[in-house]
Amino acid sequence: MRLATWNVNSLAVRLPQLLDWLAANPVDAIVLQETKLTDEKFPHSELAAAGYVAQWFGQKTYNGVALLTRSAATDIVRNIPGFGDEQARVIAGTVDGVRVIGAYFPNGQAPDSDKFQYKMRWLAALHDWLATELAQHPKLVLMGDYNIAPEDRDVYDPVAFFEQIHCTPQERAHFAGLLSLGLHDAFRMFEQPPKSWSWWDYRNLAFRRNQGLRIDHILVSEALKGQVSACVIDKLPRKNERPSDHAPVLITLT
DNA sequence: ATGACTCCCAGTGGGAGA
C-alpha cells in the first residue's frame, strides 16, 4: 500500500501536475493541502477519470484539504470534532483498514502573533482528538503539512531560524506530543540524504540552492510501524514550471 | 534587508504563505 501527502498550493493551478504525478505514482491514497477551492469548484470529475474517489473540504481563498483514494474511503471526518474552526484544515477517512488523516496545520506567522496562539490551540485539540482516533483505529497515519520543523537537521539554516516560526520550542513540543501518542516519523525510520527538505521558498532561488525546511510529515502508529518499508520526499515536481513550493512525501506499507 | 515569489480576490494593490 502506498500513501502520499502533498501541499499543492492551489489545486486549480496544480491539477494538471497532480494528474501527471498520480499517473507516475499510482498511490492508494493521497491527501492534499491548500486546495484553495470552495467545495463547488472541486475537480472531482477529473480525479474520478484518473481513477480516484475524492473527499474534499474547502473554503474560499485559503486552506482546503482533500483525500483521494483508489477504493472509496469510509467514516469521513472534516476538521477536528468539538474544535470550532472556521478554517478547513483536516480530512480523515478509513482506507483498506487504515485510518488516514490529512491535515494542513496552521502556519502561525510569528511567535508573538494571534495566529501563533491559534496554532497552539489547534495543536492541543489535534493531540486530544488523535488519542481517541488511535483508540478506535490502531492502524493510523497522520500526514500533511505540519508547518513544524521537528529538529535542527530539518532546517537549512538553524541559526537564522532559531526559535523562529516552525522552529519554536512550543511547536516542537507539540510535535513531540504527537510522538508520545505512539506515532513515529516514517521519514526518520530510514537513512536519508542530508539536507532533505519538503518545502523551498519561491524566493531567493531557494530550490536551486537547496535552502528549505522539512515541514511535511507522515507519522505512523505503533501498529503500522512494522509495515513501513520506505518513506521518501519526491523533489521532482518542484522542478516543474509553476511548481508548488512543497514536494510530495510518499510512504510504502507492506 | 521590513526585499526577493506565487497565489488569491480584488480591481489598477494587498494579505498570506513559510
Structure description:
This protein is an alpha+beta fold and 254 residues long. Helices cover 23% and strands 27% of the residues. β3 (53-57) and β4 form a beta hairpin. α3 (114-136) packs parallel to α4. The longest helix has 23 residues, at 114-136. The protein is globular, with a radius of gyration of 17 Å. The chain binds one DNA strand of 18 nucleotides through residues 9-10, 12-13, 34, 36, 60-62, 107-109, 147, 164-166, 199, 201-206, 213, 215, 242, 244-245.
Order of helices and strands: EHEHEEEEEHEHEEEEHEE
Radius of gyration: 17 Å
Helix-residue proportion? 10-25%
Strand count, sense and barrel status of the largest sheet are: 6 strands, mixed
- Give the overall average pLDDT: 97
| Low-confidence parts | none
Strand content: 25-35%
Structural class: alpha+beta
How many H/I helical runs? Answer: 5
Summarize this entry quickly:
This protein has 254 residues and is of the alpha+beta class. It has 5 helices and 14 strands. Helix 3 runs parallel beside helix 4.
Main traits of this protein?
254 residues; 27% strand; DNA-binding
Helix/strand layout:
Elements: E1 2-7, H1 11-24, E2 29-33, H2 44-49, E3 53-57, E4 65-69, E5 74-78, E6 90-95, E7 98-104, H3 114-136, E8 140-145, H4 169-179, E9 183-185, E10 199-200, E11 212-213, E12 216-221, H5 222-225, E13 228-233, E14 249-253
Parallel strand pairs: 1-2, 7-8
Antiparallel strand pairs: 1-14, 2-4, 3-4, 5-6, 6-7, 8-12, 9-12, 10-11, 13-14
The structure holds one DNA strand of 18 nucleotides.
